[in-house]
Amino acid sequence: MINDINIWLERLTSLYNSQVRHAANTEGIRPVHAEILQYLSICNRYSNTAQALSEYLGQTKGSISQSVQLLEKDGLIERRQCSEDKRVTRLFLTPKAQAIAERIGKVLMPNLGEAKEANNALKSLLMDWQLTNQHKGFGQCQTCRYNSLLSDGTFQCGLTGESLSSDEVKLLCREHEFQVRS
Amino acid sequence: MINDINIWLERLTSLYNSQVRHAANTEGIRPVHAEILQYLSICNRYSNTAQALSEYLGQTKGSISQSVQLLEKDGLIERRQCSEDKRVTRLFLTPKAQAIAERIGKVLMPNLGEAKEANNALKSLLMDWQLTNQHKGFGQCQTCRYNSLLSDGTFQCGLTGESLSSDEVKLLCREHEFQVRS
DNA sequence: GAATATAGTTTAGAGTCTAAACTATATTTA
DNA sequence: TAAATATAGTTTAGACTCTAAACTATATTC
Q: How far, in Å, CA of B42 to CA of B35, rounded?
């Protein structure tokens, strides 16, 4: 009845959440603020909005809106209206917040090894889960079906047509879609 | 700089939290209440206390205490003082709560496959992480250094001396310790 | 140009969270 | 064995979070 793999996942998650709480405490901020800073430090330039945060964290946009206001008041986030779509406000970490995010990252992203099998296992777990739940989005461009490697060594996003550096394709994108499996 | 495996873990976790929130919403309860019911449905008989919940979820015992009170008021949890140690109150799910936990489990514990590699990958990830953070506890007895298989096919816990069924060794224990690697 | 969709804000009210002080029981130490 | 300390849990006050729903503003579709 109880599937071992799900128990590992359950525990891994509760441990992760525990660490977020602890790291936030150390920095003197709320856990949800730590999550927001963490997300903004690993998302790409298409994905740094309140709407994306709401989708990523699974909270209502009202809640995100309030948290972002507090973070702005504390000098951790800077908001800039998007010139192409004036409904959109893009969020940026201030240097102070970047330093915090980096310290939090050290706690949340310890060197867990580069093991190929673990990497593949987590990836296929995530694919399965996102597919069965019709959850779309949020993955690194380098694993996205719309990403292609150009002959000059740079990458290109098939959705926006823009070119991406090798650093950029490691960031999280809200438009991300896995390759459909045959 | 950004390690791929950590990004998968990060996303897996946010997705899991998202699902908890969603499942809780569907059941008309708070996310943290869902987590408490979920934990109590997979922990063993040594681990169903407020203290264990506090350690597992990484929250203060004051916070857990309040949540447990609300759950009791809603008829989802029953509290019984432990006769061996009267400081301890053991927590039990009511039938109503068991039904909820089962439905939540279906969402949080989809059939993610039994793949041996994924299983091993998650396990070693968790071991590494718990070790580097000096986090002890919370794992299935079947992977615990104190657990041994008796000749009659049952199991025995080396800490309590009690014997455990093959169902029981699949539950989470707060005293869990991995085998120390040589 | 009107209808609809999308991004984000605001509000009220219920609830969560923490630290710290507290009660009660158990264990250790002198 | 009595005193000191440790452990399990409760209570309190106050700051903060969360959601739903109504709202503004801009963009897209028909």
A: 11
Q: For residue B34, which residues of chain A lie inside 8 Å, CB to CB?
A: none
**In chain B, what are the domains?**
4-108 (1.10.10.10), 116-173 (no CATH)
Strand B155-157 relative to strand B147-149, pairing: antiparallel
Please give chain A's pLDDT, 182 residues, in tens. Answer: 567 788 888 888 888 898 888 888 888 899 999 999 999 999 999 899 999 999 999 899 999 999 999 999 889 999 999 999 999 999 999 999 999 999 998 888 766 666 677 778 888 888 888 777 766 678 898 888 888 898 888 899 888 888 888 888 898 998 888 876 54
Contact A18 B125 (CB under 8 A): no
Across all strands, nucleotide nearest A69 (CA–C1'): C9
Cα A40 from chain centroid (whole Å)? 7
Handedness of CA B81, B84, B88, B90 (dihedral sign): negative
Which residues have a Cβ under 8 Å from the Cβ of B37 and sit 6 or more positions away? B29, B71, B76, B93, B97, B100, B101, B104
The amino acid present at B153, given as its one-letter code, is G
- Low pLDDT (below 50) residues in chain B: 182
Selection from B69, B44, B41, B39 nearest residue B54 by Cα = B39
Distance from C-alpha of A128 to C-alpha of B88, rounded to nearest angstrom? 41
Which residues does chain B have within 8 Å of residue A111's beta carbon, measured at their own beta carbons? 3
A78 to chain B nearest CA, in Å?
23
Residues 6+ apart with CB under 8 A from B72: B78, B79
Minimal Cα–Cα distance from A73 to chain B, Å? 26
